[in-house]
Design brief:
Elements lengths: L5 E5 H11 L1 E9 L2 E5 L2 H10 L8 E8 L2 H19 L3 E7 L5 H4 L12 H9 L4 H4 L13 H12 L2 E3 L4 H16 L7 H4 L5 E4 L10 E4 L4 H5 L5 E4 L1 H14 E2 L4 E2 L6 H8 L5 H18 L5 H9 L2 H12 L10
Parallel strand pairs: 1-5, 1-7, 5-6, 7-8
Antiparallel strand pairs: 2-3, 2-4, 8-9, 10-11
Helix pairs in contact: 1-3, 1-7, 11-12, 11-13, 11-15
Length: 335
């Protein structure tokens, strides 16, 4: 008989947090057979001059200096240990995002997560004349992955039985598990979290606000410093809060994933506007309609806005944003 909850975690977050925590950016100066390294340009110049060399002729490059892979894996182990100890988990599921995310086909206006593409992918789009209204004029160097990215994923799969999710994101699987548990157990926020930890309920351990569109219990596994800043360890999302969070995201978009929402509307601003509105979907429809009307009547638009107003109507575009933002709720749900 289960003595604790089932905990599900987006292991992608562990990969990036643990990976980047185990490396640092450095500067290297080279000239002929001379080489110096330091953590910033000022210290690099000091190292060169203190060694009795002139600065002229040195080529300076920024590079990643990783810790040994064992350090990265130990960091991951500590993060998982913190989650397991805090949640008293009886069972533990880790999910990694695989290939073939359906959102890549849904996104037509901007490439899904285009701001996190590899440099060669960005260059290929520009060469093909695709998304030029987004890429041109922007300082997009391309995304970087942790140096030990592959090793950490392999460790999570081999040692912790992490499941690689294809066709969607790890977040979708967390949303599915949370939705199934919510509808099966009908857990309410008045349940004491200490008692809930002794049940066979379900908890999502994550730091991602995207999941807050699904009701249920959540555990935020951030560091002590972040918690001191006011981020609670435990929080419960009600159906009303989940609905508010979903439509606030549809209104504001999510540029961390390259999803362009209504200009000038932030997530918090959208939540404030929608908080007391009964039919939030209708209100967001009105907001999109007004935005498109404003762009249509404007004398001057940015290239991205001009392309949007010339090629989309507000209903089509809002539906695209909705499909990109909304997480799946059930495993057999149509995309």
């Amino acid at each position: 008989m289960s003595k604790g909850p089932l905990v599900s975690t987006d292991a992608d977050i562990l990969v990036y947090r643990g990976g980047f925590a185990s490396e640092k950016w450095m500067y290297r100066g080279t000239r002929d057979d001379l080489q110096f390294e330091a953590k910033n340009k000022t210290l690099l110049k000091e190292a060169i001059t203190e060694a009795g060399h002139e600065l002229s002729g040195f080529k300076v490059k920024k590079f990643v200096k990783p810790d040994p892979v064992q350090f990265a894996l130990h960091t991951i182990k500590e993060q998982i240990g913190h989650i397991l100890e805090s949640t008293k988990a009886d069972d533990f599921n880790l999910y990694l995002t695989g290939e073939g995310n359906y959102r890549e086909q849904v996104a037509t206006f901007l490439p899904y997560k285009g701001n996190r593409m590899l440099k060669q992918e960005i260059e290929a789009h520009i060469a093909a004349g695709e998304y030029t209204y987004y890429f041109e004029g922007r300082k997009l160097a391309g995304t970087t992955k942790p140096y030990h990215y592959d090793a950490i994923r392999e460790y999570l799969i081999d040692y912790w039985d992490a499941e690689v999710i294809g066709g969607m994101e790890a977040d979708d699987m967390l949303a599915i598990k949370q939705s199934e548990a919510y509808h099966n157990t009908c857990i309410t926020p008045d349940v004491d979290i200490k008692k809930y930890l002794r049940s066979n309920g379900h908890i999502v351990a994550s730091i991602d606000k995207d999941l807050m569109q699904v009701p249920g219990w959540y555990f935020d596994f951030r560091t002590e410093d972040q918690r001191k800043a006011g981020v609670p360890d435990w929080y419960y999302v009600t159906e009303e809060e989940a609905d508010l969070n979903l439509w606030a995201q549809v209104a504001s978009g999510d540029m961390t994933d390259c999803i362009f929402g209504i200009a000038g509307i932030s997530f918090d601003g959208a939540k404030k506007k929608l908080k007391d509105v009964k039919n939030k979907e209708k209100e967001v429809e009105s907001m999109y309609q007004a935005w498109f009307k404003k762009m249509d009547e404007a004398d001057k638009l940015k290239p991205m806005e001009r392309y949007l107003i010339d090629n989309y109507d507000w209903e089509t575009y809002m539906d695209e944003v909705y499909q990109l933002i909304r997480l799946k709720r059930f495993d057999d749900e149509e995309k």
